[in-house]
Design goal:
single chain, Hsp33 domain, binds zinc ion, five-stranded antiparallel sheet, CBS domain Like, alpha+beta, six-stranded mixed sheet, 13 strands, 2 domains
Amino acid sequence: MSQRDHLVRCITTDGTVTAMAVDSTMTIQTMQQLHDMSAVASAALGRLMTGALLMGSVLKSSKASVTLRVNGRGPLGSLIAVADNQGNVRGYAEHPQVELPLNARGKLDVGAAVGKNGVLNVVRDFGSGQPYTGQIELVSGEIAEDLTEYYARSQQTPTVCALGVLTEKDGHDVVLAGGLLIQLLPMATEDAIEKLEKTLATLEPVTTMMAKGMTAEEMCRRALEGFEVELLDESPVHYGCNCSKERVAAAIGSLVPREIRQMIEEQGGAEAVCPYCTRKYTFTAEELEVLAVEREKTFGKKKKKI
Ligand SMILES: [Zn+2]
């Protein structure tokens, strides 16, 4: 079943518009189960992670990644999603079990859970050189609108972003998740823009289209109705974390030696949990001692420099 999740990229043959769509259902189900999330938390982080997948897919290098951070001072706290261009995405929310009443339209109140008094921060790391960082004030905390605003403010390409996570009625299970990203290219004519605007005005929500059985490619073709469309590529996506004992050790090894020794004395070792995938890493007193000694060497060097 995990073969189901995939991302497709399409372009109109006249080269004026691109559309990307993703079915991230299994990925977001994994997210919900890993973090035991409430429905509204799943909708919020699920949208952010789906948006990250779409943004990550356009990065060129296999080492590149995009990190989306949202904090709107709502009850969910901070939300983080990281995606690469290989279809891996991971994320977590600070308070994943927050429950809120449905909004006036009977929908999960993502805007209230995220809050809108804060920022969306976007870091695009190209795998080499300086990462590119951008930040906007949140528009609504509904995520898709905020990402659309991010594109309007910080990128030259006019972009429309639609994201959806459907959860079980009266439950926490994720039923469907997906997203759509449509971008106007510099060659777009007035006619093309008008045609696209008309179609987008009548476009149904992503999860409504998915509930009808539409595939990611069909959603792209629907968004680009009236244009001749070429499918560029199709690739799988999944929940993927790149943590390892070495990375956790590096994080512990960046503490001052006194703090590492304190762990040895007080706990006889250390246990660290990856916030993205909840994998546990244990370090024995001996392993910590090695890290403390290593750290002392670099610590000493830095001191000498000063
Ligand atoms: Zn992990």
